[in-house]
Amino acid sequence: DRVYTIPNVEPCPRTRTEEKTSPMSLLAEGRLRLLYQGTFGEGRGLEEVLREWGQVDGTKIALFLRGPRNMWLERVEALAEELGLLGKNVYVLPAVLEKDLIGAAQEADIGLIPYKGEELSYRFAGPNKLSQYIHAGLVILGNRLPYVDEIIREGQCGLCYDVRKKGSLAEAVTALVADRVMVERFKKNSLAFSQGEYNWERYEPTFLKLVSGV
Predict the structure, then answer these.
(1) Cβ–Cβ under 8 Å, residues 57 and 29
(2) Which of 9, 35, 149, 175 sits in a 20 to 30 Å window from 208, CA-based?
(3) Predicted confidence (pLDDT) per residue in 12-46, tens digit
(4) What DSSP line would sit under 35-84, residue for residue?
(5) What pTM value is reported for the model?
(6) Rg (Cα) of the chain, in Å, rounded?
């Protein structure tokens, strides 16, 4: 009679583990830190991000890419080098264990979800990294996918861009760079959303009732 949905959310972390002297912070040298953390693969939209990154003020924000090394990461890294960005305002960081993803993300200011949405599995995704970024207290910057856009609006915790429109990403990044007060507000909203609504503790009772048939 009814269809239930449970969002893809992780338990709310008990502590924050940000290290002020982390490799990311040292490389950023006071710039805003935009993080893509996760698997590298076809259709994830990172090539489009890099091709617009030259329009962004690299003295004020840096892009960090972190995930298991594979052929797709190597292609992204090669493109960043070809564009003259690698080691200047684009950096590749070593992968971390799954249990450490939220803690590692806390080093950043902004979490990137660039999936293009050409495939249904990306278009209607509720990505792991969305919950992880929110729990880490990051601003969310995402391509305008239906669920990602909905959560950003509900949590008032970030901005969306449209990968189909040239300059859209650069415009969103520039808006964040220009307004540090907005960035801090979005970060606080992420933490509040994490602790109040967008966490596994909020939905676990519903899930247990469903699987137990109550």
Answers:
(1) no
(2) 149
(3) 987 776 566 788 999 999 999 999 999 999 999 99
(4) EEES---TTSSHHHHHHHHTTS-TTTEEEEEES---HHHHHHHHHHHHTT
(5) 0.94
(6) 17
